[in-house]
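Quick one: structure for this chain?
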Amino acid sequence: MSADIYPKEISIFNSINARLGIKSSFKNAKRNIGLLVLLWLANDELSRYSFFRSQNDKIVLKEDYLKNLFNYIATNLNSTQSYDDFSAYINKFELVTNQLEAIQVAFQLVWRLAAISFEDRTFPDGKERTGSKRYPKIVTYTSNLDLIKDSFIGQENLLRTILVKWVLLKSNIPFTNKFNDTQTKEGEEKLLKILSLLSDQTAFKIVKNDGNIVFHKSGIYQAIVENGEDSLINISGDKEVKGPLRIMTAAIKNDVEPFLEETSNPKGHVKLKNSSLNNIKNYTTRVETNLRLQNVDLNIELEGQNLTKIKEHLSSSNNIGKNIIYYGAPGTGKSYGLTKLIRRNGIDNYDPKSGNEFVERITLHPEYTYSDFVGQIMPVVEPNRNTIDGQTITYDFQPGDFTRILRKAFQNKDHPVFLIMEEMSRANVAAVFGDLFQLLDRNKEGYSEYAIDNPLIAKYVFDDGNKTNIYLPSNLMIIGTVNTSDQNVYAMDTAFKRRFEWRYVSTIPQSDFTNNPEISFIDKDGNEQQILWVDFFETLNDYIVNALKLSEDKQIGPYFVKFATDNTLDSEDLLKNNNVLIKNKLLQYLWEDVATVSNMTSEQNLFSEKIRSFSSLYSRYENKETIFSDSFLNLLQHKLRNVDDSNEES
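Got it. Here's what it folds into:
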């Protein structure tokens, strides 16, 4: 007997940002709803589509999907209607031309018909916020499409007719309707009520001078019930309407709402439309009951079900819940090591070029401050028709790098999250961390041993004004890099250092090291000699420590110079390119950080005694003259002889 097959467990989905403060607008709701639903009906009713393709800086619907739509609604079009004119008309719809965030607010938050994202998942949602360039998007439909379709079982042609009517609003395209006015009106009312039901869970916000109001649509109905059938309800507040409320007010103007209509005097108000007070009262009760019954707390059950799996996932790595610093000479591959660490610890496809939503990678510098790291309160100028200059200045907390990734970690406790801090010694890290320093002490489970009180961070991280304490969760890993040659820029105190694991990255190349072309140097007799990069920098590192009596932090790593591979060049041109990199990337470091300092530590020299200035060093190298001291050249020659002897033996 085969093993039993059980249901798949509940997935824990990330919360969706309600976007109550976003300024995106979305006009002509009816025709865009019609287009979105018709595209699904006309194209096999799948769950996920890549409807769009790029056309210069714009996007348009792909030909196959548009032709299927044209053929699907042909019975409602004039037989003389050209496909080209229809295509040009459809590609001007807001679903095609608007920025992503406006479309998301309309169809994800208000009517919940589809999730919409960029095809390129590395793009942030705000990619189209400035400029007119548009990018292809993915549309993933919800089961609410099935609800609409199944509500018209036996009336499929009526549903199609209504949707086509909406799509052709304000167009010159002739519309053919095989249903009488009563049938069409009743069908539209049914569809509008379904859409209204779908938006009942949407949160809206009114901004007032004395405090904000966050409400569901049923809050409007309740106000009408309490204040009488002829009540006018203010849904504009004292400041600019934003977020889903902006979409909804446009929809009310567009006659999408079956129970509400706008008033012309005063503006920004709505009243009850085509319904009795008793009907709206009973409907409101049903909506509120539905909202209450949907608020089922599964946290206890899910914790019992998934806690072991989450712990196994996070504890599969010995690194999660730790603070680690990779340190070593410049060019040892510390940053590359971080990438491998992230891949080994839960994000196996991580690519530092494209980034990842669970990795915040920052580079510190002398001007980097606590405000950059944590965030700060900044003035925000907003339109206000009630002021003399038409503007109001408010102050909002703008989160910094640490605060953003901390929120990500708390929102995704079953997923490893990384804060990467490159070049930590280039900034005053004690000042950058400030009061967060206390969080760095972690217990054996990876959580902060001590929480700190920081209301600004807590409000942003938890979306809750009642919580003020913050701490590091066990799924957040903080990884830093330090160039040992830079430690004297901003020295880290012992108290800070001991809260990190320090992992040394050696100058010895790993077994998979491939950054190893031939370079050349001029020997004591003025002859050009070729040597592998690995033989050169290993000899140089030995000389820096043993002959020049300098510390290891003056050595260089195997990736100090990253050589390009160009298969189109012959060996002579490739060697020339490699030598140019040596001249432009290595010489200045050796002159400033090695040779100058070694004058105080050793009687030996790295460069020829004839060279007294960097300009002389630079020009001699360009002219293929000897630049290194005899003692260093002797070591290079010895390395060449050893290599030659080894080759002869083999």
